[in-house]
Amino acid sequence: MSAQVYRSRESVYDLLPREEVKIEKPPRYVSNFRPTVVEEEKLPKRPMRTMGPANVEVPSPENYLKKHSKEPKLPEKAKSAKDGRIHPLRKPPVPSRTDHPPLGIHTKQDFIKTRAFVTTKPKPISVDTHRGHKEALENSGLVPKYIKKTVFFFLISVPLNVRTF
Length: 165
What we know:
With 165 residues, the chain is mostly helical. The protein is 18% helix and 4% strand. It contains 4 helices and 2 strands; from the N terminus they run ααββαα. It has helices at 34-42, 111-119, 137-140, 150-157, and strands spanning 125-127, 134-136. A hairpin with a 6-residue loop joins strand 1 (125-127) and strand 2. The N and C termini lie far apart (113 Å).
């Protein structure tokens, strides 16, 4: 197959000279902040904008930077009660069976309330949904609470002809 080239037909108008049309471009964009940028460039802080001033005092060779020199130093340890022992790492000995406990020591802790708090059992619950919604078992209707009432047993034990509603 041969490649066919399609050309436009010749026209009389092609022979007439055409006037060149100049397309006028809109004026180029110029920022309103241009004068302030030029003034900022002239300011002396440009050379030290990121790394500080160019001329910094170099430390002397005698005061070179040593390892851990910039870490904060902890204060000296205060003497504690453990330091007064004969062996500061050991605990005091366990009292013997014949030693009497020290009397007159009072604490603010209420041992009765702490024991009562520990011994309380959680109320039974029933989980309704797979997402874990909980409800008290008494309110759920799964516990037959009316059968367990003493008044109900009393009504059952009374003969039918005596009962009046």
